[in-house]
Amino acid sequence: MQSICIKRSKLISLFILIFIISIVPSYGISIPKVPTKDIFVQDYAEILSKEVENNLLKLSSILKDRTSAELVVVTISSLEGHTVEDYALNLFRKWNIGSRVENNGVLLLVAYEERETRIEVGYGLEGAINDGKAGAILDKMIPYFKDGNYNVGITVAHGLILEEIAKEYNIDMSDVFIKNDIPYFDLEGTNNPIPILILPLIFLFFIFIFSRIMGMGFFQALFMLLSILGRNNHKHRGGRRPPGGFGGGGFGGGSSGGGGASRKW
């Protein structure tokens, strides 16, 4: 009888220990409040240009409309002593990223001071973006970060994630730049926007060849060139926000078991 009580006591102690360990990582993490405007891009570290931020917002909004998946970019100044894994997971869950039914959210988190980044993937997309694929995406982003070009780096990662989600839902995103608000950019550094719809076919052919040479997807190459042509190589800016709003309201999912990948630069 005494041995049974001892075993029961040890078992209870083990459960208590597991519970404590499970809650300690999230204790004291200061997560920003859930945004109600421009929910797909929150640039708290102010490392993105207005043009890039606006484009990412539009693309994520279009992606949600077509798939219900939510692709969110968050930059922060500091992890405040926490690991990037704990911070990303807690933010993902607190914001409830992804749809409530499918849990199909993806978070791209960038911590500026610690020079760390992570892709956090919801349960519903872990098959499409497994840990290895998430790591490969970050590996293509990091070289731009090392050069201080956060605009292009985040654009590249965002584009690659978007492509994987589109494949998972078997949808074609090729008409995004024609049928939506993104087909305008500053080609020559002037103030006259040029619709991509009337750009010569040779420009699209050049993008195709460039993407094959660089070993990247068509949209990834296009996003990168648009970022460069848009003169968005600034490291920091004065807290500018894009005009208008995309993705108002809030999120609805938030289920993630820690799937994804992390990198330093």
TrEMBL record:
Pfam families xrefs: TPM_phosphatase
Keywords: Membrane, Transmembrane, Transmembrane helix
Compositionally biased tracts (Gly residues): 241-265
Membrane-crossing residue ranges in chain numbering: 197-230
InterPro entries documented for this protein: TPM_dom
Spans annotated as Disordered: 237-265
Keyword Transmembrane: yes
TPM domain location: 41-156
Keyword Manganese: no
PANTHER family: UPF0603 PROTEIN YGCG
Protein name stated in the entry: TPM domain-containing protein
